[in-house]
Structures are given as structure tokens and as C-alpha cells.
């Protein structure tokens, strides 16, 4: 596996975990494009083409108002009149609310190395997200947004942590309700599935080709249920349980999380002190060390400062919540993150929090007004977590706002995993506007026009293997491809076997044999030897 493809695996997780853009720069002014009913592509960002497609805001009343969907594509490397041309392949980010434009902009060249030049590689921002309008936003200014908690706190961080989260998200829903211009309820997966069909038809195609990651799998299964005769190729990679998702339960996601963490512990022991800075002779001893400084951080957080910029230092207090979020996020990309995580945790055990703070990505920067028109345009189309909240809460069934009911559900989640304190999507829907839940009935048992390919890892921290077994078993003819690795989605680990099967499926329609298990490539190590890992303070 080449270094560039390995970097691809390491770089995409922010789009899957947070729906945020992490690499590649969109320098295009999207205001230059007038939305239209057809895909009027214009050159953008050097090798790409951009468009804004007009779709009905409300598909039940299509003539009342419209939304504009932002798209980007890397055109196929073969002529469109060639027999090799295979049409558009849509790449779907996670989140929910991840930007498909950012996903393609940052990684299209590397995705092309996997599946070849036959396809236009297409990404779109779902309705309410980033460059698509109307955009979901609960705050009229970025200055006001900066007052809201910057990241999700651990629900076990303190005696009042759960109560504070309850209050924070109740407040957020109140703001969403008060500032809704009437478009908010249309930010949902059912409408996005209809938008995706419009995108395919605007390309002159009748059926969709789609590779959806993480919660992008919910869009894939929803599309398959709504339009089973419109499937040309459909890969769901890192499979969510759609029934659990639409019920707003979120009870199945964490079943394999501790397994992923245990792989970190065992891998550190096996790697030894030269490759794993956190090394102890046993996994239990490493766990005890982590437990010790985790407990200390609950009452004695540590100050950290790091010069991430030559002109602006960044600083923060590293507390228990930041530690938990940083470890949890590292579980998404073990082959890229386990070794630096071990180093950061070791330094933290010595009282130095800077490495963990830098790894967290949770940098505290005061809001600054845009300096020019270009910066203002970038802010106008930035990705907001508001869109993620809107999608999952509009999709899901209404939940009780009674504090005791909410706490009881949390305790039910904690019975499934010790990582229940850091994955809180259900809480974000507390007091969500009571819009009519008139979504189509979904059973997720459709007989699709071409069989679906599901891909699941054996130790995925947020989309457990059992989800892939369940969903693939409900769609006749579909096949589950298992990747024997830790991490979130197939791109979390280098596996040529997995990529060859995915490429064969898209190019030739060839499904792997039932029960196929792909290993990680020889030579791939969670804690590469010859590294600079050290147990001395730095």
C-alpha cells in the first residue's frame, strides 16, 4: 500500500466523525454560480467542476419554494463517449452533515487510484449543509456561536456534567426553534435521498452509483428502500443500524468500541517500549496507568500551550473531557493514530499535556471577523455542526424531555459500553422542534435492482460488525465484505484485498463471495518499529 493511500485513510476521519473539512482548500466563490434545474458545471479549484442544482425544498409541495444543492466533480479520465466511461459515482461523507464537496475535493485523486478513471467522482453537500442553501444555522453570527460549548463534554466528567449537557442541548433546540425560517424541517435524509436521485437524473443517468461512509450508509439504505429500482452500484462502508438511527435510540453504535481500545492496549504491549511510549508489560498495567491520570484530570486539569502558528500561540486547559474525546477519536484511525496517542498519553502521565492538546484538534481560538470578502465567503459556506443536529433530529423519532427518562436512556447506553460518555447524538435532540414526522415508512428490506455491497470492520468503534451483518441480511442478494481490522470504515486500515473487491464491484459488478474476510496488508503496523517513540519526557 502506497504512502499516499495510507495518508488518505488517516485524513478522512474528520469528515466521518465531525463532518469537518481537514485538507484541501476550496478557493472557489460559490456565489458565482446561479442555481439551475440542470447541472451547469463551471471550472473550479483547478482540476474540478462545480455546480448548484435547484431542487424542491418540500417534495410534497414542489412548486412552493426551492433549495440549492452544491456539487463538485472530478471528471472521468476517459471520454464520455468511450465504452469505458461508467458515469457519475457519488461519494457520501458521514457526520451526518459531512460535506461531500470537501470529501471529493480533498481525496478524489486518491479515490481514483482505487477505482480507476472510468467514473466522474461526484460529491454534494446535503441540504442544509455548508454550501447548500438554505443552510441550517441556529446562531445569527459566528461571535454568538463561539459562546456555545466548543466540543461535547464527557458525561462522566463531574457530578453536574450530565445536567449541564441536558441544559446545553435543551437551549440549543430552543435557539433552533426560535430562529427557524420554516426551512429547517426539510433538512433530513429522506429529502436528501430524493435530491440524490435528482442529481443522477440531471447527469442523464437512470440509476445511482454510490459509496457512502459511516452515517452515509443511512443515506444509502434509505435510498435503496425508497428507490430500489434505481440502484446501479451501492456500497455502504461502516454500516449504521438504520432502525436504531431512525428511532433516535443510538444504542448499537458502541458495541465494539472497547474491543478497539483493547487492541490499542495489546498492541502497545506487543510493540514494546521502543515503538510504544506508553508501554508496560501487560495491558492491565497500561490500563491502570491511564485510569490513574484520567482520575487525576477530573480534579486537577493541566494547562497546555503550543505554537501551532508562528504568530498565534494556542492554549487550553486539558481536562478529563478532552482526554476522553481525544482517545475516542483516535480509535477511528488506529494505524495513523495509535502511536502518537501512546506518546501523548505517556507525556500526559509525566505532567506534560501539550502533545495531547495538539492531537485533540480542539484548539481554542477567539473568533475574529473576516478580514476580507474572500474570508467572508468562506465563512458563509463553512460546515456547521447545526446541520448535523438538524439531520439526526429531523430524521429521528421524538424523544422524551423528562430528565429522568433521559437519564434512564443514558444508563441503558452505558450498559452496552464504558464509552457511553463521549457519544451523545441523542441528547442533541432534547426539545427539538415538534415538526410533523411525515417521513415515508421504511423497513430496510428492499429487493434492489442490483445487489448492495456492505463493508464492515471486525473492530469498528462506532459502527459495529453486527450492523453490517444485520443490514446486508435484510437486503436480498447483498453481500457483507468483512475487513479484519480495527478502526472506522474500511479506509481506517490499509487493505489491498478490500480495495480490490470494492473496485471490482464498481467496475464489473462483481460481488465478493459470501463470508469473504480481508486482512490488513502485510507490513502494516499499529506501532511501527523504528519510530521515535520514547518514554522520556520531551
From TrEMBL:
<feature type="domain" description="Peptidase S33 tripeptidyl aminopeptidase-like C-terminal">
    <location>
        <begin position="426"/>
        <end position="518"/>
    </location>
</feature>
<comment type="similarity">
    <text>Belongs to the peptidase S33 family.</text>
</comment>
<feature type="domain" description="AB hydrolase-1">
    <location>
        <begin position="88"/>
        <end position="244"/>
    </location>
</feature>
<dbReference type="Pfam" id="PF08386">
    <property type="entry name" value="Abhydrolase_4"/>
</dbReference>
<dbReference type="InterPro" id="IPR000073">
    <property type="entry name" value="AB_hydrolase_1"/>
</dbReference>
<dbReference type="Pfam" id="PF00561">
    <property type="entry name" value="Abhydrolase_1"/>
</dbReference>
<dbReference type="GO" id="GO:0016787">
    <property type="term" value="F:hydrolase activity"/>
</dbReference>
<dbReference type="InterPro" id="IPR013595">
    <property type="entry name" value="Pept_S33_TAP-like_C"/>
</dbReference>
<keyword id="KW-0378">Hydrolase</keyword>
<feature type="signal peptide">
    <location>
        <begin position="1"/>
        <end position="24"/>
    </location>
</feature>
<protein>
    <submittedName>
        <fullName>Abhydrolase-4 domain-containing protein</fullName>
    </submittedName>
</protein>
<dbReference type="InterPro" id="IPR029058">
    <property type="entry name" value="AB_hydrolase_fold"/>
</dbReference>
<keyword id="KW-0732">Signal</keyword>
<dbReference type="InterPro" id="IPR051601">
    <property type="entry name" value="Serine_prot/Carboxylest_S33"/>
</dbReference>
Amino acid at each position: 500500500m502506497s504512502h499516499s493511500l495510507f495518508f488518505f485513510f488517516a485524513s478522512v476521519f474528520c469528515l466521518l466523525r465531525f463532518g469537518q473539512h481537514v485538507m484541501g482548500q476550496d478557493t472557489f466563490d460559490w456565489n458565482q454560480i446561479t442555481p439551475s434545474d440542470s447541472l451547469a458545471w463551471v471550472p473550479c479549484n483547478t482540476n474540478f467542476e462545480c455546480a448548484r442544482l435547484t431542487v424542491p425544498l418540500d417534495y410534497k409541495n414542489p412548486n412552493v419554494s426551492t433549495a440549492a444543492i452544491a456539487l463538485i466533480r472530478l471528471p472521468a479520465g476517459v471520454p464520455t463517449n468511450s465504452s469505458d466511461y461508467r458515469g457519475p459515482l457519488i461519494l457520501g461523507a458521514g457526520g451526518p452533515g459531512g460535506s461531500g464537496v470537501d470529501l471529493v475535493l480533498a481525496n478524489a485523486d486518491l479515490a481514483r487510484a482505487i477505482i480507476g478513471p472510468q467514473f466522474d467522482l461526484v460529491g454534494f453537500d446535503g441540504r442544509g449543509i455548508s454550501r447548500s442553501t438554505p443552510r441550517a444555522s441556529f446562531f445569527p453570527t459566528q461571535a454568538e456561536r463561539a459562546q456555545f460549548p466548543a466540543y461535547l463534554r464527557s458525561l462522566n466528567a463531574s457530578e453536574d456534567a450530565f445536567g449541564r449537557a441536558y441544559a446545553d442541548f435543551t437551549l440549543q433546540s430552543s435557539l433552533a426553534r426560535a430562529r427557524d425560517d420554516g426551512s429547517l424541517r426539510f433538512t433530513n435524509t429522506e429529502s436528501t435521498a430524493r435530491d440524490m436521485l435528482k442529481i443522477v437524473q440531471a447527469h442523464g443517468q437512470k440509476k445511482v452509483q454510490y459509496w457512502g461512509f459511516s452515517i452515509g450508509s443511512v443515506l444509502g439504505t434509505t435510498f435503496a428502500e425508497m428507490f430500489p429500482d434505481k440502484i446501479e452500484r451501492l456500497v455502504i462502508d461502516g454500516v449504521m443500524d438504520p432502525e436504531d438511527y431512525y428511532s433516535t435510540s443510538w444504542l448499537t453504535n458502541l458495541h465494539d468500541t472497547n474491543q478497539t481500545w483493547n487492541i490499542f492496549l495489546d498492541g502497545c504491549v506487543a510493540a514494546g517500549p521502543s515503538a510504544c511510549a506508553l508501554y508496560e508489560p501487560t495491558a492491565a498495567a497500561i490500563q491502570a496507568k491511564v485510569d490513574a491520570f484520567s482520575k487525576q484530570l477530573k480534579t486537577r486539569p493541566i494547562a497546555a500551550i503550543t505554537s501551532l502558528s508562528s504568530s498565534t500561540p494556542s492554549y487550553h486547559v486539558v481536562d478529563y473531557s478532552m482526554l476522553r474525546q481525544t482517545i475516542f477519536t483516535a480509535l477511528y484511525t488506529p494505524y495513523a493514530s495509535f502511536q502518537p496517542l501512546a506518546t501523548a498519553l505517556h507525556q500526559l502521565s509525566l505532567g506534560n499535556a501539550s502533545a495531547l492538546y495538539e492531537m485533540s484538534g480542539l484548539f481554542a481560538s477567539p473568533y475574529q471577523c473576516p478580514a476580507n470578502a474572500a474570508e467572508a465567503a468562506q465563512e458563509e459556506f463553512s460546515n456547521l455542526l447545526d446541520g448535523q443536529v438538524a439531520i439526526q433530529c429531523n430524521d429521528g423519532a421524538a424523544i422524551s424531555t423528562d430528565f429522568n427518562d433521559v437519564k434512564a436512556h443514558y444508563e441503558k447506553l452505558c450498559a452496552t459500553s464504558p464509552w457511553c460518555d463521549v457519544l451523545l447524538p441523542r441528547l442533541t435532540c432534547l426539545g427539538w422542534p415538534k415538526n410533523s414526522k411525515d417521513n415515508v415508512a421504511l423497513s430496510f428490506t428492499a429487493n434492489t435492482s442490483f445487489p448492495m455491497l456492505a463493508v464492515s470492520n471486525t473492530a469498528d468503534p462506532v459502527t459495529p460488525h453486527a450492523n453490517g451483518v444485520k443490514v446486508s441480511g435484510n437486503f436480498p442478494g447483498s453481500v457483507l465484505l468483512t475487513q479484519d481490522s480495527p478502526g472506522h470504515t474500511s479506509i481506517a486500515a490499509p487493505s489491498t484485498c478490500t480495495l480490490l473487491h470494492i473496485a471490482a464491484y464498481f467496475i464489473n459488478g462483481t460481488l465478493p463471495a459470501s463470508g469473504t474476510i480481508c486482512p490488513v496488508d502485510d507490513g502494516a503496523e499499529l506501532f511501527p518499529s523504528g519510530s521515535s517513540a520514547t518514554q522520556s519526557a520531551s
